[in-house]
């Protein structure tokens, strides 16, 4: 591609519109292509309209209450599930979709549905299926809960159907982001949400650990999702629960749990994990009384490993990213970060996922179509560091600004060659830090993994064990309770 003259506008960032209900498609992207006329947006002429109807099948909680049995995927495909219902969802080229309660709705009715939140109660014991109701193909389906954990699923061989391959969790709100193409190949998409039924009364408290087994970067954290909440005012119950959640590591590190909310805990070391650490997590809750009426149940253990320690530090003042492996500099990259009004978040982030190609649009962050700031482009080698849409990615339209000035809408842009190298080098859990950007500080929990922006004293303040142990006879870092052991 020819390089854009420096006098032309350069675009770089957007954010994912993750909303509850059937509303906006994921969209986050830099502005116009090199050489595009600044008065016409990303593409010449009006965009071609496209739409596709999806059928979203769910085992509704109402069906279970009416006597319907819990069912697995084999049963519902054979039509043996009572309470199984399908919902029509409209995906469009503009990313605005409505839950269609009838096969067709007028424009006014669709607008009314799109303008309000839709939360669809779903039985956690039943499956979820997304199917095309007309010719086309699914290109991407991402389902994650309110804690950012992804639900595994698979596409059928001809990409006409997606089905979950792991159970839904009880008492969770899930955001579903669907990308597809209509029969002519035009891209469409939609984001919707549903909530699973809460745990049945009398069920035992269990825990699900994250991340999944695998290999991660040194900034990865351990998550513990409880099947039911433990309130903050019941400090003894929280302390008993923490004491039963065991994290061991080789080599030994100092670490602690921190309560993110009533049903979520995070565990991190005091400093980043050493390279090649093996981490093992297990619950000792089974049969343990946690509160006045709660008893723990069995939970699956977790083991994962840490790879080489990769750290990428971007200095927005010098427009350079320095990448280190195990403390040694392996590459220095000219970059551009957020300009005035769109400053890149400062602080420590962690790689969440890698996306080879992402469509990014200005209207996902409130930039109106047709204005000089609007952008709509496919972006290559996109390494995601926040759920709201901050990436490190290829930005060939701003090569002349890279290393010289900050011209993006918040993402970190670099040449295609450097972005491809970075994409191949990093993995989930690797550390990405931004300094001297002038942007707001990365939040600890609500937009990805920002846990490392909390100092150790503040982290320990979120531990019930540390709080109860912080008396005159003991230390908040009692080794038998807070330190993983080999």
Here the CATH topology of the domain at 51-196 equals Immunoglobulin-like
Instruction: Strand order, main sheet: write it out.
Output: 3-2-1-5-8-7
Biggest β-sheet description: 6 strands, antiparallel
User: What best-fitting shape do the alpha-carbon axes yield?
Assistant: globular
- Proportion of residues in extended strands: 25-35%
What low-confidence regions span 5 or more consecutive residues with pLDDT below 50?
A: 1-47, 62-70, 72-78, 100-118, 471-486
Name of the CATH first level of the domain at 51-196:
Mainly Beta
Report the radius of gyration as a whole number of Å: 24 Å
The number of distinct β-strands equals 27
Question: In whole angstroms, how far apart are the ends?
Answer: 53 Å
DSSP helix count? 8
Q: Name the helicity range.
A: 10-25%
- Structure class: mainly beta
Mean pLDDT: 78
CATH architecture label of the domain at 51-196 = Sandwich
């Amino acid at each position: 591609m020819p390089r854009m003259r420096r006098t032309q506008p350069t675009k770089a960032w957007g954010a994912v519109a993750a909303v509850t209900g059937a509303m906006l498609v994921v969209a986050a992207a830099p502005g116009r292509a090199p050489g595009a006329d600044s008065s016409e947006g990303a593409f010449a002429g009006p965009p071609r309209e496209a739409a596709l109807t999806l059928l979203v099948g769910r085992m509704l909680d109402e069906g279970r209450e009416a006597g319907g049995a819990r069912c697995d995927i084999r049963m519902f495909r054979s039509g043996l599930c009572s309470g199984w219902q399908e919902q029509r969802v409209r995906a469009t080229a503009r990313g605005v979709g409505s839950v269609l309660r009838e096969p067709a709705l007028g424009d006014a009715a669709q607008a009314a549905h799109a303008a309000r939140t839709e939360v669809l109660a779903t039985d956690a014991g039943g499956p979820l299926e997304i199917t095309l109701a007309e010719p086309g193909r699914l290109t991407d389906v991402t389902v994650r809960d309110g804690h950012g954990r992804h639900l595994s699923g698979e596409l059928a061989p001809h990409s006409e159907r997606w089905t979950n391959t792991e159970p839904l969790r009880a008492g969770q709100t899930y955001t579903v982001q669907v990308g597809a193409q209509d029969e002519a190949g035009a891209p469409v998409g939609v984001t919707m949400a549903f909530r699973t039924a809460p745990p049945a009364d009398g069920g035992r408290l269990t825990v699900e650990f994250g991340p999944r087994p695998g290999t991660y970067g040194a900034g990865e954290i351990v998550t513990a999702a409880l099947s039911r909440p433990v309130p903050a005012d019941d400090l003894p119950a929280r302390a008993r629960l923490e004491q039963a959640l065991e994290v061991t590591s080789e080599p030994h590190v100092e670490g602690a749990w921190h309560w993110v909310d009533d049903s979520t805990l995070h565990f991190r070391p005091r400093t980043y994990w050493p390279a090649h650490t093996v981490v093992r997590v297990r619950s000792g809750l089974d049969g343990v009384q946690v509160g006045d009426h709660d008893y723990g149940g069995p939970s699956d253990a977790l083991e994962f490993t840490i790879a080489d320690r990769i750290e990428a530090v971007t200095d927005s003042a010098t427009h350079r990213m320095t990448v280190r492996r195990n403390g040694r500099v392996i590459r220095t990259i000219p970059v551009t970060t957020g300009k005035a009004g769109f400053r890149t978040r400062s602080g420590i982030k962690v790689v969440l996922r890698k996306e080879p190609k992402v469509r990014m649009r200005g209207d996902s962050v409130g930039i109106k179509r047709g204005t000089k700031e609007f952008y709509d482009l496919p972006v290559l080698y996109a390494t995601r560091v926040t759920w709201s849409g901050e990436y490190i990615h290829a930005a060939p339209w701003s090569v002349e600004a890279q290393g010289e000035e900050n011209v993006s809408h918040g993402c970190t842009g670099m040449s295609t060659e450097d972005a491809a190298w970075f994409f191949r080098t990093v993995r989930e859990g690797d550390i990405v830090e931004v300094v001297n950007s002038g942007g707001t500080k990365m939040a600890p929990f609500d937009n990805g993994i920002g846990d490392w922006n909390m100092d150790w004293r503040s982290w320990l303040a979120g531990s019930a064990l540390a709080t109860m142990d912080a008396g005159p006879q003991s230390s908040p870092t009692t080794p038998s309770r807070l330190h993983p052991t080999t």
